[in-house]
Design brief:
The protein is an alpha+beta fold. Helices cover about 25% and strands about 35% of the residues. The strands form 3 sheets. A 5-stranded mixed sheet has the order 10-7-1-11-12. It has a 4-stranded antiparallel sheet with strand order 2-6-5-4. The protein starts with a strand and ends in a 7-residue tail after the last helix.
Length: about 220
């Protein structure tokens, strides 16, 4: 039976000077590039695995129907599993839009614009205050144990349908998915920010500190 599947994929932390530069260069629009949005063939903290073939199919459809038509909106916070609106996108809750998305290995990387809407301004102010926000996908599908006799890790099945590639949330759950962006580093006009890479050990330590203390700020 299909259920609402919510996956928190990454955190965005951007130096405020880079945010202001983005706003200046884009006529007031806040655009953040190269954000991790989803990961295939890897168990996440919800102990779900998304086969790449399933995500490839869904991203292809989502790109043609949503991104290319400039309507790939994301909510501020997910609806709950009991919310009847969990399978729809409500413009009154829109805070961001996906401008582009592509594969990089098993990762889906995208460009996000934080919208000048009431909820988008909440996200903008959090980022401008120097804090981070999370990105989280939303879809409908069923799951089955990945290995016989093992109920811990489940695999998302072929009936999965992607609703939102990225809602904006407080706490992501994909392992080693933390991202920060180097200050004042621009590759070209189409790739504004480059990714600051942390080691797997650093990311695990950051996750543990976040889970135990509730303090999820990446120190540089």
């Amino acid at each position: 039976m299909k259920q609402l599947l919510i996956e928190h994929s990454s955190r965005i932390e951007v130096p405020t000077v880079s945010l202001h530069e983005s706003i200046d260069k884009n006529n007031g629009r806040l655009i953040i590039r190269n954000v991790l949005l989803q990961r295939a063939d890897t168990p996440n903290k919800n102990k779900r695995v998304y086969p790449k073939r399933v995500l490839e199919r869904e991203l292809n459809t989502y790109f043609k129907e949503q991104i290319k038509n400039n309507c790939a909106y994301g909510h501020l916070d997910h609806p709950s599993n009991e919310d009847p609106n969990g399978s729809v996108v409500l413009l009154e809750r829109a805070c961001q839009i996906i401008l582009d998305a592509k594969w990089k290995g098993n990762d889906i990387i995208g460009d996000i614009e934080v919208l000048n809407t009431p909820l988008g301004n909440i996200v903008r102010n959090i980022l401008l205050a120097g804090h981070r926000v999370g990105q989280s996908s939303r879809g409908l599908g069923s799951v089955e144990p990945l290995r016989e006799g093992d109920d811990e890790v489940v695999e998302v099945q072929d009936d999965f349908s992607l609703i939102v590639l990225a809602d904006c949330v407080s706490n992501p759950s994909t392992f080693n998915a933390d991202m920060s962006l180097k200050e004042n580093e621009f590759i070209n006009e189409n790739t504004m920010f480059s990714t600051y890479k942390t080691t797997k050990i650093d990311s695990l330590i950051q996750d543990i500190i976040c889970d135990l203390s509730g303090i999820c700020c990446l120190k540089k």
